[in-house]
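Q: Joint fold for the lines below.
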Amino acid sequence: MTDQLGALTTIFTEFYYWITVVLMFLIHVGFCMYEVGASRYKHHQHTLMKNTMLIPLVTVTWFLFGWWIYWAFPTGPGLAPSIMNESAALITDESLFSAKWYVPNSDLMAVNLGDHISGVFWAAFLLFAWTAASIVSGAVIERITTFAFGILAIAIGSVFWSIDAAWGWHFDGWMLKLLGYHDAYASGVIHAIAGGFALGILIVLGPRIGKFSSSGEPRNIGPRNPWLVTIGLFLIYTGFWGFYAACNIPIFNLGPEYGMEGVTYWTATNIYVTPTTLSGITMNFLMSLSGGLLAGYVISNKDPFWTYSSGLAGIICASAGNDLYHPIQALIIGGIGVVIAYNLHYWVERTFKIDDAVGAVAVHGYAGVAGLIICGFVLNGYPSSGYSVGSMWVGTDYAPINPLGMFIGAVIMFGVLGLIPGYILAKILHAAGKLRIPRDVELAGLDYNIMEAAKKDERAVSSSTR
Amino acid sequence: MATVTNWIDHLSAAEVKGAIYPGVGTESVLVIVLLVIWIGWHVITSVSEDDDLAKLAKKRHSGNDYKSNITDW
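A: Joint structure:
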């Protein structure tokens, strides 16, 4: 950095992403509070510990291979050629955005005076990875082993989310080129995939003891601490601001980027390097939150747990197109997503005896899928990229956004990269006897030994006279 | 071990070297160490968790036994 303007742009971008990481940390704090509030007293500490330990588990694997996957896999491989080197192989060449620079023993994966951006960008994506794993965490509380959850958290956080981001959340991703996929704030690439992955696990894991009567009727195991759930969800909303900001590039000159001779156009862009404004997405964020809350309040008959969750579902549903929607469109789409997610949750619960303890599959998975499909209709015809415009299925240029491409994209996110891997991995862990805690432990409570020790300590202290 | 011993010399070089952490060139060894720690951690915690769960399951507590262990506020 030898000129002041260039330095200012670089340091601003570096600081921008750093702030988003701090804000996104609140998502994890929120998920922890939410899960503890939703779980029963005898499982509290293990529930919290499980969600806390995903931080190091996903971080280390993200350092080892998760970040590399994102940069290596945009072409599939083999599905559409890269615009950087025109090859459909893994991107591991010498080009600027190659995965070659992001192997764990690269000198760019450390303090490096020549690179002010990779580390904060790595961290922003890592926080998305935590979120994906944390979404799964809530669904499986009170009966999964910490070991199994750790393996599954690594799989969704450092492997499958990273693959889906490379495919559909990268300026060079094959899903943009072949399908016209568009998912600006991650309805699919975070939420649908995590919801699908959670559902795949739940099918194998089974319900908590007592969740269903002998005749198969579901029983409500409601949140034990509604206030903690409330604060947790508000913290997730807060962290979501950071998430939205982290999905943008704050300052970029699109003229030379798109090859427009003599044109200078500085703007914020989304992850696909197409223009948007922080101002506009702020309006859309708040309006889709409002749409979700308004719909949730009505459809759940004023149930606090579902109303707060519906605010989140509203944002998630509108997120795919919130870089371009009108705020009123964002509000309506948020509301529609909530109606779909709420009804699907109870239908799936009754029909397939699925015990999703916090409604994670509904709020993230169903609302995310609905958001992708709706986006295909509302943004039908918009370019999925600024680099070129072409037709579907060709792959050498970028297909426009369209309903069919977005529907296929939703299937890939929820089913191919979410539900199927979650199911298979859970089956393997189940076969190894590592998936579910013993029945007697579930009845006694995961925290039984900790609580018993604390009671003994208390008795000893209270019987002391000096 | 020190990669930089004089900042003036470092920053006034014709080509400023970006990597400034200690032990530049030992990155692969550090990755191997991390992998060993990583795998070891999983093995140790998995065995420990299995042991804890088996011991607790053996006691066959009822679903309400934990209530006698609730501490005072």
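Q: Anything notable?
A: Residues 26-54 of chain B form one domain. The helical segments of chain B are 7-11, 27-59.
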